[in-house]
Amino acid sequence: MSYGSSITDVYRQAGVYTGRILKGERPADLPVQQATKVELFINLKTAKALGLTMPTALLVRADEVIE
């Protein structure tokens, strides 16, 4: 299982920062931002190798299930 920030959201934020820098803002003046969207990934193959069973409710809530 992995729970972390959305890669697409991180790339979007990087693009926004790049645009602001190219428009003349100083990087030191830009605020630090935290990811606002997180994703849950579950790898069933690894879970099976470890002898773990994932509850159905958890699998339904996951953003991506890797089989």
How would you describe what is shown here?
There is one protein chain. By secondary structure, the chain is an alpha+beta fold. It is built from three helices and three strands; from the N terminus they run βαβααβ. Strands 1-2-3 form a three-stranded mixed sheet. It is rod-shaped, with a radius of gyration of 18 Å. It starts with a strand and ends with a strand.
- The ordered string of helix (H) and strand (E) elements is EHEHHE
How much of the sequence lies in strands comes to 15-25%
Helicity level: 40-55%
Give the overall average pLDDT. Answer: 93
**What's the story with the biggest beta sheet?**
3 strands, mixed
Number of DSSP helices?
A: 3
Rg on CA atoms, Å: 18 Å
Features:
single chain; 67 residues; alpha+beta; 3-stranded mixed sheet; 19% strand
Task: Give a concise summary.
With 67 residues, this protein is of the alpha+beta class. 42% of the residues lie in helices and 19% in strands.
Give me the secondary-structure topology.
Layout: E1 2-5, H1 7-22, E2 38-43, H2 44-49, H3 56-61, E3 64-66
Parallel strand pairs: 2-3
Antiparallel strand pairs: 1-2
